[in-house]
Amino acid sequence: MTAPDTTVAPPNGSDAAPRASWRESIAVYLQPRVLIVMLLGFSSGLPLALSGSTLQIWMTESGIDLRAIGLFVLVGTPYTLKFLWAPLVDALHIPLLTRRFGRRRGWLVFSQLLLIAAILLLASTDPVKAPWFVALGALLVAATSATQDIVVDAFRVESLPESEQAAGMAGYVAAYRIGMLVSTAGALFMVSAFEGTGLVRAAAWSWGYVSMAVMVLIGTITALAATEPEQSVRAEQATRAEGGFARVMNAAIGAFSEFLARKDALAVLAFIVLFKFTDAFSGTMTAPFVIDLGFTRNDYAAIVKGVGLAATLIGGFAGGFVARRYPLAASLWIGGILQAVANLSFSWLALAGVNQWALAFAITAENFTSAIGTVIFVAYLSALCRNPLHTATQYALLTALAAVGRTYLSASAGFVAEATGWPLFFVICMLVALPSLILLAWLQRRGHFAALQT
């Protein structure tokens, strides 16, 4: 079937593109579509830490050993495999919800309801008494969160016009990071608050997770208030005569075949896997590192909530500025180098010991550079996905590959940290960025990024 003429324009990155004034740059963030995308970004970022760093702190306080905590990152497998069920999101309808809200919004509401249920299940677990039940709960949170990500990514790519792409990506990533901060620092403060009421630690952690489940409703309300993307509506009309199985197969086959037909497709896939690996490898052990160094849970939460939040916001919008102003390849160089070098701030923190200023600097550097790198990386992935018939499938494939570094390659981080010690571990985290930068240089010479901007 011939795809409708609804291709998604890549984000601004051409030297010939007009430069927006600072007033125009600010005003674009107030556009309704951009605000909707920002709120959905918060909803996407919220659950990630609940099966990741926040859960790691819960397990650390429960006395679980470091190696087991490092291996627990494998519960993030659904983020890597989500492309397998993304064709269902592109092609199938949710009874009642799709008819009432549309193709993308129906799936948004459905995935968020499942996510709430999964977080409540995890809240009922105990890492000491039933670690395997904790693993199951965390796995379900990751699976439902990954499903929400599939829909949100497709909604974002399809709903934003070219003039709002850079602002949308910056706002999305900034809000995504805020969601992560809420489910890390916010969750830790909630746990401490519940402990302050007299609850035992296990019960306080459970109620902390219940509070995070309630926060998911922000995304649900946003989905209900949003408008179905016009590109999605046209794609739905183009495939209305096809059966469900045919739509699923077309979405799956079309997404894979279209991407693999690209020049240097395998090198592009490798670059996607490795670009954020430096971030993921260090991020896997950041929370255990800070606690192990001697900081309290509230010390970590206060720095992340305050300084980290500000750095994330500024970094997200700085990344949007870079993506809007510079060519795509140059933007990727800026983001890639910054997020790698930021790891050295944690090496310095390891040598400085329990020093609040050193912790604030390290968290600031990590959040600021990670936000810049993520915005630029999202701009790159969005430029690769232009067909609304399988936007969800193709974007899910790319982000799933990016999650390989966070999930599988990072699973050894605990063993490396234990073998090398914290200062050298974060130096290694910086060095693992080199393969992605080598691939970036090679793809740039091959004209890959120039082709995306035509």
TrEMBL record:
<dbReference type="InterPro" id="IPR004752">
    <property type="entry name" value="AmpG_permease/AT-1"/>
</dbReference>
<keyword id="KW-0812">Transmembrane</keyword>
<feature type="transmembrane region" description="Helical">
    <location>
        <begin position="357"/>
        <end position="383"/>
    </location>
</feature>
<feature type="transmembrane region" description="Helical">
    <location>
        <begin position="303"/>
        <end position="323"/>
    </location>
</feature>
<feature type="transmembrane region" description="Helical">
    <location>
        <begin position="64"/>
        <end position="85"/>
    </location>
</feature>
<feature type="transmembrane region" description="Helical">
    <location>
        <begin position="266"/>
        <end position="291"/>
    </location>
</feature>
<dbReference type="InterPro" id="IPR011701">
    <property type="entry name" value="MFS"/>
</dbReference>
<keyword id="KW-0472">Membrane</keyword>
<feature type="transmembrane region" description="Helical">
    <location>
        <begin position="173"/>
        <end position="194"/>
    </location>
</feature>
<keyword id="KW-0813">Transport</keyword>
<keyword id="KW-1133">Transmembrane helix</keyword>
<feature type="transmembrane region" description="Helical">
    <location>
        <begin position="106"/>
        <end position="124"/>
    </location>
</feature>
<feature type="transmembrane region" description="Helical">
    <location>
        <begin position="206"/>
        <end position="226"/>
    </location>
</feature>
<feature type="transmembrane region" description="Helical">
    <location>
        <begin position="34"/>
        <end position="58"/>
    </location>
</feature>
<dbReference type="GO" id="GO:0016020">
    <property type="term" value="C:membrane"/>
</dbReference>
<dbReference type="Pfam" id="PF07690">
    <property type="entry name" value="MFS_1"/>
</dbReference>
<dbReference type="InterPro" id="IPR020846">
    <property type="entry name" value="MFS_dom"/>
</dbReference>
<dbReference type="InterPro" id="IPR036259">
    <property type="entry name" value="MFS_trans_sf"/>
</dbReference>
<feature type="transmembrane region" description="Helical">
    <location>
        <begin position="422"/>
        <end position="443"/>
    </location>
</feature>
<feature type="domain" description="Major facilitator superfamily (MFS) profile">
    <location>
        <begin position="33"/>
        <end position="447"/>
    </location>
</feature>
<protein>
    <submittedName>
        <fullName>Major facilitator superfamily MFS_1</fullName>
    </submittedName>
</protein>
<feature type="transmembrane region" description="Helical">
    <location>
        <begin position="130"/>
        <end position="152"/>
    </location>
</feature>
<comment type="similarity">
    <text>Belongs to the major facilitator superfamily.</text>
</comment>
<feature type="transmembrane region" description="Helical">
    <location>
        <begin position="330"/>
        <end position="351"/>
    </location>
</feature>
<dbReference type="GO" id="GO:0022857">
    <property type="term" value="F:transmembrane transporter activity"/>
</dbReference>
<feature type="transmembrane region" description="Helical">
    <location>
        <begin position="395"/>
        <end position="416"/>
    </location>
</feature>
